[in-house]
Amino acid sequence: MSLEHIEVGRIVEQDHQAFYDWVRNPSNKRSLALPHTTLRYFIPPRLYNLAADPNFNLLDDPGNIDVTISVSQAEALEFFILERKPNPLSDPNLLENYQRRLMLYARGILRSPPELPGDIDRLHNTHYEAIQQGIISVNDYITHFIHLEKRAPNELHVISYNDREELRGQGIAVSFYLERLHESAREMGFRYITGEHTVAEDPQRLIDFFTKRVGRILLSDLPRRVQRRFEKSYSETIYHAYFTVDFLDLRDQRRYKDAQPA
After folding, report:
1. How many CB atoms lie within 10 A of CB 19?
2. For a surface tag, which of 41, 91, 155, 235 has the fewest beta carbons within 10 Å of its beta carbon?
3. Are 23 and 42 in contact (CB under 8 A)?
């Protein structure tokens, strides 16, 4: 085993211990007000492994992978997963100027939207407000922005899971949902993880990912009495076939997976 992978094991074990020390406190059950050291356990292990791989050139050092929190409340959590780089990924002056030009376009002063310069990281532009607030910096290589919400006493709802396009296809999403979110939510006392897949150009591809790889169940495939349990969670403007449920209780898993249509 390489020194890099030994380091990954040490980091993961340290994060694991911090999470379980926190979640063992009964007052923390089903709370999303996670401190930084606890939230680090949500980093997908696959991300560390890629950073330790000398043949993978998008990530450099597992020791520089971290989380930073933008919202941490009992019922809402927003955070970034990122790798801290030694040098800026965006020119701060160009980024500020580009944002000004976007505002001019929004006000109708510019007739066409400005083209994003090559010296600006796309996700720095997307999350410019977080840079202004000092939550992230231009040295941060953002891999994810994740927004979770407590929708009912036992339901954890994924509002958004935004990842970096060039990191897709590496098993990171599966690692997050199965190795981290599923396990962590169950330990925190949740009974369900839910998600509504509405913004993708190809929602069916996302649905196939969640049902076939992550093991969720389509709301439309569940008995009507169970669907009613989640009516406050899914949008009234979209057919609830795009809403999926991950049952964390083993009894629920057996009961409702057997009830699915063949």
Report:
1. 22
2. 235
3. no
Instruction: Match 């696959």 to its residue by tokens.
Output: 46
Burial of 109 (0-12, 13-18, 19+ CB in 10 A): exposed
pLDDT at position 233 over 60: yes
Euclidean distance between CA atoms 4 and 15, whole angstroms: 17
Q: Is the dihedral of CA 143, 15, 18, 244 positive or negative?
A: positive
* DSSP assignment string, 155-214: EEEEEEEEE-GGGTTSSHHHIIIIIIIHHHHHHTT-SEEEEE--S-S-HHHHHHIIIIIS
Residue 244, C-beta contacts closer than 8 angstroms, at least 6 positions apart? 194, 195, 197, 207, 210, 211, 216, 217, 218, 219
Q: Answer yes or no: are the C-beta atoms of 128 and 99 closer than 8 Å.
A: yes
SS3 (DSSP) at 256: helix
Six-digit token string for 95:
């980024």
User: Which residues are within 8 A (CB) of 146 and not within 5 positions of it... i.e. 6 or more apart?
Assistant: 42, 77, 78, 79, 80, 81, 158, 160, 161, 162
- Which helix (H) or strand (E) segment holds residue 147: the answer is strand 140-152
Asked if residue 239 has pLDDT above 60, the reply is no
β 217-218/65-73 pair status: unpaired
CB 120 within 8 A of CB 90: yes
* Calpha distance 258→170 (Å, rounded): 31
Query: In residues, how long is the chain?
Result: 262
pTM exceeds 0.85 for this model:
yes
Q: According to the model, what pLDDT value does residue 182 have?
A: 96
Domain layout of the chain by residue ranges: 89-138
Residue 251 confidence (pLDDT) = 87
Residue found under tokens 């939230």: 39
